Amino acid sequence: MSLLGAGEIRELAAKLDLKPSKSLGQNFVHDANVCRKIVRTAGVTSSDIALEIGPGLGSLTLAMLEEAQSVIAVEIDARLANQLPITAASHTDRAHLLTVINEDALTLKTLPADPTVLVANLPYNVSVPVFLHLLEILPSLRSGVIMVQAEVADRLAAKPGTKEYGIPSVKAAWWADLHGAGSISRSIFWPVPGVDSKLVSFIRHQPLGEEALRLKTFTLIDAAFAQRRKMLRSALSSIYGSSGAAEKVLIQAGIDPTLRGESLLVNDFYTIARIGF
Prior knowledge:
Elements: H1 6-15, E1 28-29, H2 32-42, E2 49-53, H3 59-67, E3 70-75, H4 78-89, E4 98-102, E5 117-121, H5 127-137, E6 143-149, H6 150-156, H7 167-172, E7 176-184, E8 189-190, E9 197-204, H8 211-226, H9 232-235, H10 237-240, H11 243-252, H12 266-275
Helix pairs in contact: 2-3, 8-12
């Protein structure tokens, strides 16, 4: 199977009269080796139903069709969504294994099948909300790789006590273990983006608790990082009514009230949430 090169990417864009949109994060990958590396890193196998978010002109899609049992591609741009099956049919005899859905991933609710692996080149401005939304609504996803802005990747894979650690790190950890999986050169995109990109891999684990407790846990996380330099007893006072009340709950949970949110794991926030508010 041949993948898309830089010349063909530009030809397809011209055919569609496509002027890449910054707001939609339209920077298209044109390096076949990188596409195959991303699919390998995601661990896509012949038993997987692979989900791709933002397939664009189809570079990664073709690499996924080489390995997966089937591919579901969700594309917000109708022109790209309509073109993708045509591109696939002209490059592979496995095009019938591709399902394209013209929808915004942020409002996605259901899919025609339960995907097991995610591979996505996520738009920089909505990468975290999209990723968290997919983890929330698609419990069948067991693993995957996302390509995001370098700073976002660092935040998602960050560990407690680091300056990068924050809301994205803690919330994503409710569903999965995340790790940095390498850097991606700007030169493999067209047009060349103004930011660096990195890969983040994830493996899903069992969520810590039920949905009601997740919502409470996430409320605590938001409050703890809203003013991240504040001690927890102060940061959570808006939830518990006063710093004194917050301190009592933190002590009950076995957590030092003078710590800051950046010191806590998602399990710690969950422990606090279980006490209630």
